[in-house]
Amino acid sequence: MSKNNFDVIILIGRPAAGKSEVIDFLKKTPVDERSRRFHIGNFEEIDDFIYVWETFEIDDILSRHGKPRIWSDEKYWFKDDFIWNLYIERINLTYRKRLAANASYHEDMTSLIEFARGGDNGFGEAFSYLHEDVLKRACILYIKVPYEESVRKNRKRARPGMEDSILYHSLPDEKMEFYYKTNDWEKLTSADPKYISIKGYKVPYIAFENMPEKTDDPVKLGAELERVTTLLWKTLRS
Hints:
alpha/beta; 10 helices; Rossmann fold
């Protein structure tokens, strides 16, 4: 772990909860201020939406050439739920390549790993596929909104022609309900107010309270992000 900054933050929540807005805010904040207020200096993001979109693109290419689609049907419903775990393995691979390329990677770099999951064991299963190289350096930051708010914001952020955009991609309502109406965050955090146990690692966690919405106002976003990252840093260092 670097002297004043996190090594790895796993940034999670429901779709449109505010994860991408937090990252966009951090990108617009000067690095010295980021480090001082949030314990995040230079950072790189690993967002599994990139892999999701790539899946659809590959299947579309195969369809155009008369080949069977591998992971999704023509309406982009996944054929095999293992795809969600494959995305976590791709996160592992991307992250570990960065470590392999630079042994001192975290001396001046924080990795922000971003994904959304739903279902009775969605986050728990995703965590179980994270590599120990991630887990031993990680903290978890959960952007907390109820399902109804996730749906509202998902509809609001949609931009026609920008479906591949990190900030403006959205899901149809029927997919929101099928994949994300429930999640297991409360179950995972019920045993301990500060740590989630994952594969033998005690991973510090905290929730960014985004109700009422703060990620649409840089001042409110910054204040809440400073609150939670300060507490998370104290837990990590204790």
